[in-house]
Amino acid sequence: MLVLSWVYLIVLAAGSWMLGSWSFAWAVLAGGVISVVSFWFSYRDVTVFFDSLAGEREQHSDKDRLKEGKKGFIVKFWLRIFLIGLVLLFLITIGNINIFGMILGLTTIVFTITVSALGVVWRYYFSRR
C-alpha cells in the first residue's frame, strides 16, 4: 500500500505540474509526503503495539507493562498529530504554499486506501466463484 501511495503521489504531482503550475505541484508533493510519511509511522507504531499485545498474552503477569505500551502508543499518536500541525502551519505561514494543492496531496493515503478497498471488493465479487 505504501508503494501504491508513492506511485499515486508521483503521478498526482506530475499531473499537477503539467496541468497547473510548479507552485501547485510543489504543494501537492509536500502534502503527499506529509501524508505518506505519517501513514508509514502510524503503520510501524500499530505493528509494534500489536506485537507487544501478542507477547503480553503469553505473559499474563506484566499488566503494568501493557499499560505503558498503550500510553506510549497514545502519546506517539498525539505527538505525531502535533508535529504534522506544526509542519502544516510552517508551510502555510512561512512557506507561502498553495492550500488547495496541499489538501490534494494530503488525500494521497485516503485515495490509496479507497482504491485498494475497491480492488478487494472487485476481486471478491467478480472472481468467478
Tags for this entry?
129 residues; mainly alpha; 87% helix; flat
Secondary structure layout plus pairing:
Layout: H1 2-19, H2 22-58, H3 63-93, H4 99-106, H5 108-125
Largest sheet: none
Question: Can you give the mean pLDDT?
Answer: 86
What percentage of the residues does DSSP assign to strands (E)? under 5%
Number of strands: 0
- The sequence of SSEs as H and E is HHHHH
- Low-confidence residue ranges: none
Number of domains: 1
What is the gyration radius calculated from CA atoms?
19 Å
What does this structure look like?
By secondary structure, this protein is mainly alpha-helical. It has one domain (2-110). Helices cover 87% and strands 0% of the residues. The protein has helices at 2-19, 22-58, 63-93, 99-106, 108-125. α1 (2-19) crosses α5. The longest helix has 37 residues, at 22-58. It is flat and about 55 Å long. The model has no long low-confidence stretch (mean pLDDT 86).
Give a quick summary of the entry.
It contains five helices and no strands.
